[in-house]
TrEMBL record:
Record GO cellular component, one term: mitochondrial matrix
The reaction(s) this protein catalyses: tRNA(Phe) + L-phenylalanine + ATP = L-phenylalanyl-tRNA(Phe) + AMP + diphosphate + H(+)
UniProt record similarity statement: Belongs to the class-II aminoacyl-tRNA synthetase family.
Species for this entry: Diploptera punctata
Function: Is responsible for the charging of tRNA(Phe) with phenylalanine in mitochondrial translation. To a lesser extent, also catalyzes direct attachment of m-Tyr (an oxidized version of Phe) to tRNA(Phe), thereby opening the way for delivery of the misacylated tRNA to the ribosome and incorporation of ROS-damaged amino acid into proteins.
Protein name (record): Phenylalanine--tRNA ligase, mitochondrial
Transmembrane stretches, start-end: none
EC number: 6.1.1.20
Length: 407
C-alpha cells in the first residue's frame, strides 16, 4: 500500500499515526495575509511594528527591533513545545488541539515557537509575525488559522539598571534565590521589577497607540510555561473587557538553553485578527480570507494610521440545518474531528456549529449529539437546495469517516 506524503512548500513529510492536517488547512498555507499590502492584518501588524521602531530606537534613531515574518509554519515538537518548557503532558500538545504533520512536525500553534532559535542566533530585540494553526470550534470569532505577533527583548546586566543612580552595584542574578509569586529563583527581585516595569509600560503605551490615549486597561495575573511572572493585559472596548495579549518575564532556562545565560528578558504575544476585528469593525473572521473586492477594496489604499470602519457589503441570509447522530461506542469521537470534517466538506459557507443536544440513552447507554450548522455565504445568497446538497454530503462523510450513525 502506498500512502502519499504530505507536501508543504515543496517539502515532503511522511504520514504517520499523528498526521491530522486536513487538505483544506494545507491549502491556506502560503497566503501570507499579514504581508499583503493593504490587507487589514498587514495594517495592524505594521502599526505595531512602527510603535516598536519608535519606542526602541538606537543612538542614531535606527530601529533596534528586527522583524521576522517569513518563518516556515512547519515547526518541530521541540520548537513549539519543548524549547518553551511546555510539559510533556500539557493539554496544548493534544492531537485534538493541534494540526500535526506527523509525530515530529506540526503547524505552529503560536509564533512563540521561534523564540528560542532567534535568541540562539544572538538577537536581543525582535518581533515575530506569522500564521498559526489550532483546531477549535466554529463561529464568527474562530478559524483554524489565525495570525499572531510576538516580541522578545533581552537585556544584559548593564542595561537593566542603566537608569538608576546606583545601578552599577546591582545584580540581575541570584545563585541561591527562591521562586515566589513575584520572581524566578535565578533573578533578583530588583531585576525582575525593572523588567516588569519596562514590559508593562511598553504594553500600556502600545494599547493606547492602538485603541486611543484614554483607553482604560487592567492587568490580570496569568500562567504560561515560558514566562514567570506572567500577566494578561485587558482593554475596555465598547462595554467589554477585551483580552489583548499575554506576557511575562521569560523563564531563564529558555535563555540558558539558547546560550543567553548572561541576559534577562521579557516577551509577549497577541492575536492580530481579534485586534483588527475590534479596531476596524470586521464582524466575521472568515472575511480576512475573502478575495472579494467588496472586502479588500475597503482597506487597499489605507495606511496603518488611518481610522477605518468596515461597512458590510450586505448581509446575506443564513440557512440552518441540524444533524443528529449516535456516537461510536468505542469512544473514538471528538467534536474537533467533526468540526474539521464539516470545514473540509462545507468550506467557508459554514458560519457556525453549535451542539444543541447531548443525550445518553438510559437503557443502551449510547450517546447522541445534535449539532446545528449555520450556513451563510459571505458574498451571495445561498439557496436551500445548495445547502441541502452540502448538508447531505456532510452526513455521508461523517458516517463513513467518524463511524457515527445518523438518526
Ligand atoms: N504564546 C502565547 C499564546 O499563544 C502568548 C505569549 C507569548 C505569552 C509570549 C507570553 C509570552 O497565547
Amino acid at each position: 500500500e502506498c500512502i502519499p506524503d504530505i507536501v508543504i512548500n515543496g517539502r515532503h513529510f511522511e504520514r504517520d499515526e499523528w498526521s491530522n492536517v486536513t487538505p483544506k488547512v494545507l491549502s491556506h498555507i502560503g497566503r501570507k495575509l499579514h504581508s499583503q499590502q493593504g490587507h487589514p492584518l498587514f495594517l495592524i501588524k505594521q502599526r505595531i511594528i512602527e510603535f516598536f521602531y519608535k519606542r526602541f530606537a538606537g543612538s542614531r534613531g535606527n530601529p533596534i527591533f528586527s522583524v521576522h515574518e517569513n518563518l516556515d509554519p512547519v515547526v518541530t515538537i521541540k520548537q513549539n513545545f519543548d524549547s518553551l518548557l511546555i510539559p510533556k503532558d500539557h493539554v496544548s500538545r493534544n492531537k485534538s488541539d493541534c494540526y500535526y504533520v506527523n509525530s515530529n512536525y506540526l503547524l505552529r500553534a503560536h509564533t512563540t515557537a521561534h523564540q528560542a532559535e532567534l535568541i540562539g542566533m544572538g538577537l536581543n530585540n525582535f518581533l515575530i509575525a506569522g500564521d498559526v494553526y489550532r483546531r477549535d470550534e466554529i463561529d464568527a470569532n474562530h478559524y483554524p488559522i489565525f495570525h499572531q505577533l510576538d516580541a522578545v527583548r533581552l537585556l544584559g546586566k548593564h542595561d537593566v539598571f542603566k537608569s538608576l543612580d546606583d545601578g552599577a552595584k546591582m545584580e540581575v542574578f541570584d545563585k541561591m534565590g527562591a521562586r515566589t509569586a513575584e520572581k524566578q529563583e535565578r533573578h533578583t527581585l530588583e531585576a525582575c521589577k525593572v523588567m516588569e516595569d519596562e514590559l508593562k509600560s511598553t504594553l500600556v503605551a502600545l494599547a493606547r497607540h492602538l485603541f486611543g490615549q484614554d483607553t482604560r486597561y487592567r492587568w490580570v495575573d496569568a500562567y504560561f510555561p515560558f514566562t514567570h511572572p506572567s500577566w494578561e493585559l485587558e482593554v475596555f472596548h465598547r462595554d467589554n473587557w477585551l483580552e489583548l495579549l499575554g506576557c511575562g518575564v521569560m523563564e531563564q532556562k529558555i535563555l540558558d538553553d539558547a546560550g543567553a545565560h548572561d541576559r534577562i528578558g521579557w516577551a509577549f504575544g497577541l492575536g492580530l485578527e481579534r485586534l483588527a476585528m475590534c479596531l476596524y469593525d470586521i464582524p466575521d473572521i472568515r472575511l480576512f480570507w475573502s478575495q472579494d473586492s467588496g472586502f479588500l477594496s475597503q482597506f487597499a489604499d489605507k495606511t496603518p494610521h488611518d481610522a477605518i470602519k468596515y461597512m458590510p457589503v450586505s448581509v446575506y441570509p443564513q440557512c440552518i440545518n441540524d444533524i443528529s447522530f449516535w456516537l461510536p461506542e468505542d469512544g473514538s469521537f471528538t467534536s474537533n474531528d467533526f468540526f474539521d470534517l464539516v470545514r473540509e466538506v462545507g468550506g467557508d459557507i459554514v458560519e457556525q456549529i453549535t451542539l444543541v443536544d447531548n443525550f445518553t440513552h438510559p437503557k443502551t447507554q449510547r450517546t447522541s449529539h445534535c449539532y446545528r450548522i449555520v450556513y451563510r455565504h459571505m458574498e451571495k445568497t445561498l439557496t436551500q437546495q445548495e445547502v441541502n446538497t452540502v448538508h447531505k454530503q456532510i452526513e455521508k462523510e461523517a458516517a463513513h469517516k467518524l463511524n457515527i450513525s445518523i438518526r
